[in-house]
Amino acid sequence: MSELHSSSDLRPKTERPGASQAAVAAQFIRDHVGYPFQTPVCGIVLGSGLGGLANHIERATRIPFSQVPGFPTATVAGHAGQLVLGTLAGRPVVLMAGRFHMYEGHDASLAAFPVRVMHALGAPVYVASNAAGGVRRTFRPGDLMVIADHLNLMFRNPLIGAVETGDERFPDMSDPYDPALQHLLHTAARTVGVTLQVGVYCGLLGPTYETPAEVRMLERLGADAVGMSTVPEVLVARAIGMRVAAVSCITNKAAGLSLEPLNHAEVMETGKAVAADFEALITQFVRLL
Length: 289
Ligand code: HPA
Fold this sequence. Notes:
The protein is an alpha/beta fold.
């Protein structure tokens, strides 16, 4: 192998957390929860300001991220950093209050690792949520948007490298967000009286928010919302055959679309303001799943 090839940027610099590490984490979690372990109907990740749903989990076992083998410690304000197992609407779920972002310095494969763990616990469905800036000009802070598709402008892919056992080498991305699950989100929303937008989520690395020029570029590229997460998780979920549903909470108008500067406190506050709607939506969705 040439010097150039062996030092290629595409090679994982450290061992990439994959299927075997996920199996170890899943076994630890099963042991921690104890017998009988109920297979989750889905795995849910809660975005910034949306962590309140974790308090609605019944018969909950809460495990700090720091205890889970292979997990780093979450540091960003607004992320409690807990894995919660229990029931929602009477159905077993595994839920993450907090996630690992690439802007924290994590590799894409680590950002997506919890999805592998949820899958190893038996969850067939991955439900992502996030805080996002509204790029579509009609979006208002507090809107909830079903993600119908995404743009990966993180320009990173957690699947680069050797194929993990059980992974698809070339995952089809023509329907990354399961159409039947999108439909189920709309059905759930009607039942609980929540209005849903639909759109394309654009993932950027962050941690800076966008410039107004970047937001205008994203608008022309077809983005409706912009955020700093979710995409690596969805890529892994599709590679391992999980069905994906995802919801963005529009916490602010993206940069340049309002007169206000952006700040993380606003993101958190808006998240909390729509928490009741978000919680009702996801609870009803899980009931229907
Ligand atoms: N841009 C990127 N990420 C975000 C934003 C935003 O405006 N709001 C919440 N997360």
